[in-house]
Amino acid sequence: MEIIRVPRIMQDTSKTFLLHGKTIGFVPTMGALHDGHLSLVRRAREENSITVVSIFVNPAQFGANEDFNIYPRDLEGDTEKLIKEKVDILFLPDASSIYPEGYLTYVNVEELSEKLCGAFRPGHFRGVTTIVAKLFNIVKPTRAYFGQKDFQQSVIISKMTYDLNMDIDIVVCPTVRDKDGLAMSSRNSYLDNSQRQAATIIYKCLKETSESIKSGIIEIKNVKRFMLDFLRKEPLISEIDYAGIYDISSLEELSAEKENMLLAIALRIGNTRLIDNMLINIKEERKY
Ligand code: PAF
Q1: pTM value?
Q2: Which atom of ligand 1 is nearest to the CA of 132?
Q3: Strand order in the sheet with 237-247
Q4: Which of 10, 28, 49, 275 could potentially form a cystine with 266 if both were Cys, beta carbons 3.0 to 4.6 Å apart?
Q5: Closest Cα partner for 29 from 135, 101, 130?
Q6: Ligand 1 neighbours by CB, cut-off 6 Å
Q7: List of domains in the chain
Q8: Does residue 78 register a pLDDT over 70?
């Protein structure tokens, strides 16, 4: 695996691959890689001739009181994992090459960036779309891979790609879960044992709500109340940012049934903010 740190060298390398008719599969990450990331890497390898992974803990997507300084970093472990996965290139820029002094340009997808997590993390998605647009310009991928766990992020990045005529396929891959259902996340490492156990309520809530909707036990207009009542049974939850059912494109809260719907939750256990979601396709479920 080649490690490239300089954006210009990454660009030139990608240009050469593309000139030779290769396709580039790209997995942007902030490191602390887990099986969720590795599932994206495997998919990228299956579908492209060259696989590029980036690791960059992007300061622009963290708020002033968020966890940028303590965000887990494990470059040695990450490098080993990526070599095992036969990744071709690890792009590892430093902050000064991405945001040099005098940096002024930001990309923002309006409206969608203000909804759900955006309402609780002002500026977060502006930071995400800025870094992803820059990485796309540097790595020049044919396809880029994101996890469904960050569903809102994938909707926003798909919209940015479409609106800015970026010729890149955005591939959204299923959430990878631990055996007890907790969605894999680098932030799970912040949880102690009892918090880790408490966190399993998130997936339980999504499953129970999804099943209750499909079997007609709850109406869409009552879903939010149902989810909040379910989550409030767990005393270690310190705050619920949101829980409810949303349109999969506009991310607006729903009050009536649609064919495709998104159940989504964001909450805190102690200081750790966790998110998860589940898609519901009513037609597929109700074949009667
Ligand atoms: O999902 C993430 O890890 C980050 O938001 C991303 C896409 C790598 C941008 O920093």
Answers
A1: 0.97
A2: 9
A3: 237-247, 260-269, 272-281
A4: 275
A5: 135
A6: 28-30, 58, 61, 128, 131-132, 150, 153
A7: 2-173 (3.40.50.620), 186-279 (3.30.1300.10)
A8: yes
